[in-house]
Amino acid sequence: MSGTLGYRTLFWVSAFLLNSVVMASDDMSLDDLKALSIDELSSLEVGIASKIPSKVIETPASVYVLTAESIRRSGARNVPEALRIVPGLNVAAVSGNSWAVNSRGFNETFANKFLVLLDGRSLYNHTFGGVYWDMQDVRMEDVERIEVIRGPGSAVWGANAMNGVINIITRSSFATQGGEIVGSLGNQNREVGLRYAGEFNDRSSYRFSVKGTMSEENSPTSHSGFGQGAVANDDARHTRLSLRTDTDFGDGESLLLDVGYFRGESDQRLFASEKVSSGPDFNTIVAPAINNMLLNGATEDQVFAALAFPQYGLCTFCMMDIRDNQKYSGGHLLARWKQVSNNDWQTIQAYLDYSQREDYQLDQQANALDIDFERGWKNSLGKFAWGMGVRSVADDLQPNLSPTSVVSFGPASQRNNVINAFVQSEVNVSEDIRVLTGVGYEYSSISGNQWQPTIRGIWSVSPKTQLWSALSYSSRVPSRLETSNASPKNAYELTGNPNHGSEKLTSWELGFRYNPQNTLAFDVTVFRYWYSDLTTINIDNLFNPFLSTSTPGQLSIANGAEADAYGVELSTRWTVQPNWRLEASYSLLQTSMSRLPAFTEPMISTNKAPKHQFSLHSSWDLTATLELDLGVYYVSSLSSTGSDFLVFGDDGIDDYVRTDVRVGWQISPEVELSIVGQNLLQDTHQEFSTSPLNVGGYPESTEINRSVSAKLTVRF
Q: Where is this region: Disordered (predicted)?
């Protein structure tokens, strides 16, 4: 695209490029955050946009900070539920244990254009791209804040941050002294949690946390009648342990050590097509049976079921309706040393990560080692920072429980070594204008070089009004699914492309912030995106179950699609009275993809993100000890993907209104009781439908039930 080349030229002409350290504001207690006004919230310092600490209101990016108090008042049980509050973020429950989270389009269970971090540690899964959210069920009471940037963050965070970044930041052990027990009981979910924190001495403290959760099965969708009958099969169990120590050496020097372990199970209903040992003869068995069905008025769906499911005895490649139990476990060890003074800062961070996940089709194991160094400083010209790091990820992907090895990757084991670096500068052009330029570089032993520049500027029109704009170039490196061969014994075989190229995005953003008074704030962002080299799946040979000698269809991967997107995101915060706060947001998204040849479709459909979203949140302190919180969410409909695969249930999603209510009672300073109702207006509703991304099959979405729970918190 000529426009893309022009923007790249602009980036390089403007490249006096620099960047810094992950620097959030100092840890704040829950009571401190409850007392913050809108002005004080806007003045919190974040580093997610550039790794140069800046006040939220002075950051030239679509940044939102979700505080611990907002999370508590929402009644959210996990991070995806809390993220519903963030303006412009698309959050959908795929099932009771699976989520699709993204911003500005191309949402999916594996949203591969969005980066999620936990205390600076990447949660991105390199097998399929995206995040297994059920494996990240952190204890919400330990979260200090969640910083979110909607829009490209690749210049500082590297590839895969095309559409945004989420950084979940947990609280310091110094800020969580004492003990806390949490118990929650409801019709859909149960939870028990424990935290205890103390001090080794005046300079060093520790915190131990444990969380256990169980969730009940939701309701099947209206099209769940194929196979073994209609069930959701989406219940889950999860346990997480963590130990954190913080040491303050004085003079701005500190050390964080964090160790975590988790394990759990998430059930799913999976459909996978598998080759039977000896298929029926087409001429003598299949053809007469189908003709007889048609003569008796059988529908297209009934004929499809006869050719797909084994109970009819007519399929060569049978669609297996599987009640799958996914088991997972993992752990990490993280250390971060930080030195901060008035004019400079530096950080060294290193972590080890291990995870294993096995389901019916695949046993995944991954080990990661990551080491990063970052340094920044400020002077009369502005703020500057740079950093570099190395990362090594080794995986092992083996067929699991399926007797026919539904998904078999080649090579089964692979190591990807990555070297990354960035530089950022924030220059004071005048008293009211600042320009931020930066570039990120990443070399991968599998995908090669990635250069990701950005230029951003902000103009303080007045103390209460800011105008900002940004041009960015980002990319996403291919996942293992795209670069490896998958040779399953099912209806389709995938030929991966080891030289498969990165997806690319050129973006323009314009933002406006206006705080007319301490009790009112407005935020508006408009954006325009140009995607190129998007991953497509080519159906080279269509599987035909009507052939007398059915053979698998053939799939291949290519960079065959381009897309455009534009949208607007509006949000406002209003402190109506000291005891009553309102927050509302609206987002519009329009995406169009270039016309693709027949039997070629994108890896992730443009139809997976809603055109319209609206939310309203009210937090009202009825008395000094009684709280009432309301959240209303409207999400417009999703159309069907129009996939050429033989899939069913791809009828799109109706628009829906979700209403959540929380009533909290502070019985004493140490004891809090809350009642939380979610999805109160409907018995059930569906929020998402997964695409057949997995060549071996795909999990079915479910209807999300209404839930009511009681939560008791005791501190000591």
A: 213-233
